[in-house]
Specification:
single chain; 302 residues; 14 helices; globular; cell membrane; EmrE-like; AA-Vitamin_Transporters
């Protein structure tokens, strides 16, 4: 039953994250990427405070995990992804970031948090990556290499994997998911401040006078940030970092379906094939024989 709750939480999170591109695309007409990032997580942080206003104390030896999770999952991941998009193609970023579950499996094994995934996991990974590639390019082009942007996207995939592993470790401390996520957001916002000075933060009240801006900021701040990070961290706690991370394969699938419904975009036959391959890859990766959940789950040291 607990595992079913984890799968439901992961599916819900990925569904929302797969639709955020519409809100972000609209808001880019009013704000810079780093401004959207800071505003959405600040809103999310306030929402989590209102949901759980109690102050909770933790052992100082465990504070480093919250700091690391905030830097990786909030600050670095989104900044690296956004900057990567300015140096390389969106299709490149979509494919490279989808490698994150493989990094999660590798890092989890190296840190003795999980057993080494076997052949089914990696076969599922190859299916999913091929599917993401077809979705991202519509089967009409070859991925062009843009070293700077592609490297930044690869780093984004790696830091998200580290965030997942670190958050799974934090969940073992027994803290509630909401206060745990709130503390991670705090450090994410704290380390985002230097980026605001570097990239500039020029937001005026007139920008918030538009209904569409308010609606989409609420969606990103409360839905995609506060609620979804809580549900994702809950899923990590129930499923483990490897199983949970494979749901990332579904993001481009949901994005395509949303584009088809909301933006009336046409979907090619290659895109349909890509979605089928991605779903097949997810199912293979989720098979119990694909991930041999080990007894080393608790060995990643305090």
């Amino acid at each position: 039953m607990k595992e079913k709750q984890g799968h439901f939480a992961a599916l819900f999170t990925i569904f929302v994250w797969g639709t955020t591109f519409i809100a972000t695309k609209l808001l880019l007409g009013y704000f810079a990427p780093v401004e959207i990032l800071f505003i959405r997580f600040f809103m999310g942080y306030i929402a989590l405070w209102l949901a759980y206003p109690k102050v909770f104390s933790i052992d100082r030896s465990r504070e480093k995990y919250f700091i690391f999770a905030g830097i990786c999952g909030v600050t670095l991941y989104f900044l690296l992804e956004n900057i990567a998009l300015t140096y390389t193609l969106a299709s490149n970023v979509g494919v490279i970031v989808a490698i994150s579950p493989c990094f999660t499996a590798l890092f989890s094994w190296l840190l003795h948090q999980d057993d080494k995934p076997n052949k089914l996991f990696f076969i599922g990974f190859l299916f999913a990556i091929l599917g993401v590639y077809l979705i991202s390019t519509n089967g009409q082009s070859i991925l062009e290499i843009h070293p700077t942007g592609d490297l930044l996207a690869l780093l984004a995939a790696m830091v998200w994997a580290l965030y997942s592993i670190c958050t799974k470790k934090i969940s073992e401390f027994g803290y509630g998911t909401i206060p745990m996520t709130r503390r991670i957001f705090f450090y994410g916002l704290l380390f985002m401040i230097p980026a605001l000075f570097l990239f500039g933060f020029d937001v005026s009240m007139s920008d918030f006078m538009h209904i569409e801006v308010i609606f989409n900021l609420i969606f990103l701040g409360l839905g995609a940030s506060a609620i979804c990070f809580v549900s994702w961290n809950f899923a990590l706690k129930k499923l483990g970092s490897i199983k949970c991370s494979t749901y990332i394969y579904l993001v481009p699938v949901i994005t395509v379906v949303t584009s088809m419904i909301v933006l009336k975009e046409k979907v090619t036959i290659m895109t349909w094939i890509g979605m089928i391959l991605t779903l097949a890859g997810l199912m293979l990766s989720q098979r119990k024989k694909g991930i041999e959940d080990g007894k080393h789950e608790m060995c990643y040291g305090d």
